[in-house]
Amino acid sequence: MSTSLVLVADTHLPKRAKALPAALWAAIADADIVIHAGDWVDEATLDAFEDRAPRLVGVAGNNDGPELHARVPEVARVEIEGHRWAVVHETGAKQGRERRMESAFPDVDVLVFGHSHIPWDSTAPNGMRLLNPGSPTDRRRQPVCTFMTVSVDARGIRDVTVVPVPR
Known about the structure:
Blueprint: E1 3-8, H1 22-30, E2 33-36, H2 43-52, E3 56-58, H3 66-71, E4 75-80, E5 83-88, H4 97-104, E6 110-112, E7 120-123, E8 129-132, E9 145-153, E10 156-165
Parallel strand pairs: 1-2, 2-3, 5-6, 6-8
Antiparallel strand pairs: 1-9, 4-5, 7-8, 9-10
Family: Belongs to the metallophosphoesterase superfamily. YfcE family.
Enzyme class: hydrolase
GO molecular function, one term: hydrolase activity
């Protein structure tokens, strides 16, 4: 048995887009768990994810106001298929990220983060996997907007896919 996940961050509605892409909603409909790494920006976006996601794990980001911070934590932890996951919005500069995060989260197998809008998939020296899905609404310096899909089972993380979202 495996668990399917959608990883998303930095939705920034309604500032960066008026709506989320249909491809993201379709992936969410097929997922077992959705992880959102912050910067929802408005409560209606959180409400929509809560309505559509079978199970939602989310955190607040630097662009989220007090209402969102009251509803979601700054750090979330969850166990999925026996693996320890943490979710946080910001991890700092890309230089030295793996070592900083292994020090900050020594008991975590997978860390999902956002903030940069740039997809990231790396492994810290202690084996912790670091994943950033990018943003489905604001590509910044990337060719397209993105989110991620992941499969996880008792053996580990499988099929990490950066899903491009056409503009």
